[in-house]
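Ticket #4471: structure output looks truncated?

Reporter: J.K.
Steps to reproduce: submitted the chain below (67 residues) through the standard prediction queue, then opened the result file.
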Amino acid sequence: MGEATRNCAAAREQAGRAHLQAARAHEQVAALQDLVARMSDVAAARRRETEQRRTAATADRREAASP
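Returned output as attached by the reporter:
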């Protein structure tokens, strides 16, 4: 096998490894984006719950203060 053939084979192997690494990185990015979206949903739900509790507490105080 000539040097050029070996170099070409080595370059193909390296390109294959780089492709696999890029695919793994893409999967990791997608997983992180999914995690961020879920965390955002949880945070939004907590904000809604907090606002509902505040609204209920305000209504309770108004009711208690009314004659």
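Triage note (M.O.): checked the attachment and the full token line is present. The radius of gyration is 29 Å.
Status: closed, working as intended.
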